[in-house]
Amino acid sequence: MTGLEALEHVKTVKDELKHLECVIEELWLKLFSIKAVDYGKEPIQSGEVKDLSDQVAEFEERLEELETKRRAREAYIDAVESMIEQVRPARLKMLLHLRYINGKSWEYIADKLELSRQWLYEELRPQALEEFDKILKNGLQKFTEVYKRTIV
After folding, report:
1. Residue among 36, 132, 30 at smallest CA distance from 82
2. CB under 8 A, 24+ apart: contacts of 34-41
3. What is the pLDDT of residues 55-108, one digit of tens each?
4. Would you say 37 and 50 are in contact if contact means Cβ atoms under 8 Å apart?
5. For position 75, what pLDDT does the model report?
6. What's the rounded Cα separation, in Å, for the pair 147 and 100?
7. How far apart are CA 31 and CA 34, in angstroms?
8. Contacts with 39 (C-beta within 8 Å, 6 or more apart), sequence order
9. Exposed e or buried b per residue across 127-151, where buried means at least 16 C-beta atoms within 10 angstroms of its C-beta
10. Considering just the CA atoms, what is the radius of gyration of the chain in Å?
11. pLDDT, tens only, 96-152
């Protein structure tokens, strides 16, 4: 995996995080709306009737699965941010953070760094990616383990 691929994967991971957070929120809403089974009535559908504890257990199992995925994705973003923090000089670090962590446009970053967009993209960006690549290669084994957990 190249440094650019690792950085661009942050956007995908952030999108997945947003989705997981929505699913977790929906799961909590469903959990709070569970009603106890009235065993005095005939079941409407054929099949087994699940009592309240069965339903709660299913929700807890699903919630734990989602939370595990969420933690793995947060760990990926933290790992990338940690590597960006090691980039020197500061303007290269700022470029990487604004673009790949905050998702800012090249125009916005050029404005913040008081540079032309063309110089930023053609000159400074390759320098920043080269510095990030060096840091990534130094910690590649550990980073690969974190990355693999986001694939699950």
Report:
1. 132
2. 34/59
3. 788 888 888 888 898 899 999 999 999 999 999 999 999 999 999 999 999 999
4. yes
5. 92
6. 16
7. 6
8. 49
9. ebbebbbebbeeeeeebeebbeebe
10. 23
11. 999 999 999 999 999 999 999 999 999 999 999 999 999 999 888 788 888 787 776
- Which is nearest to 7 in space by CA: 127, 99, 118, 92? 99
Evaluate whether 73 touches 122 at the Cβ level (below 8 Å). no
Residue 97 is which amino acid?
H
> Could you tell me the pTM of the whole model?
0.77
Distance (Å, whole) CA 129 – CA 152: 27
Amino acid letter, 39: Y
> In angstroms, rounded to a whole number, what is the distance separating the alpha carbons of residues 149 and 134?
22
Three-state SS for the chain is CCHHHHHHHHHHHHHHHHHHHHHHHHHHHHHHCCCCCCCCCCCCCCCCCCCHHHHHHHHHHHHHHHHHHHHHHHHHHHHHHHHHHCCCCHHHHHHHHHHHHCCCCHHHHHHHHCCCHHHHHHHHHHHHHHHHHHHHHHCHHHHHHHHHHHHC
Q: Which among 136, 113, 138 has a CA at the least distance from the CA of 124?
A: 113
